[in-house]
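Board notes (copied after class):
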Amino acid sequence: MKTWIQKSTVRQSLFDSYDSKMNNKGWGLFVALALWVLTFPVMAVAQGWYWGSPVAPGFDRASVVEVSGTVLHVDISQRGGGSTLRVESGGEIYTVTLGPGWYLRRQGADYKIGDKLAVKGSKMKTQEGKLYLTAAKIKNLRTGHLLELRDENGLPLWKSTRRFDKEGSREGKP
């Protein structure tokens, strides 16, 4: 009969050894995957694109401009992706980033090629020299419709259905 000391020195079975090796490999794979997930967005932004967009997301209040021009191309997303317009103004062509297609449809956005627009937004330029305008407000001169996409701080209006004023009460409610 073996004592408890002798039992603890008994060699592990082949299955126990295999399980411990696989657990170590699993952790290595997990760590490698976690590092890739954490560094990929940083590398993408450093290269001048972010999840398929050639410009970094955001709204810079210091670069807000007003542009009037003619619509050359309309790309309104049917799903949740971003929508854009291409607008020619004063010999320059801007890609105007709008917001998700569902929000544009809900706000009654109606843009056609040839429409005259007045756009207020944050102007950006890619490394290749392409101009982008992250729109805050767009006035369609054909229909007279004003589309508001961002608040005065540049925050997207489609992110929340509840907007609060400075006192904390709901806008339009006592």
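Comment from the instructor: The mean pLDDT is 76. The beta strands are 64-75, 82-89, 92-100, 116-125, 131-140, 146-148.
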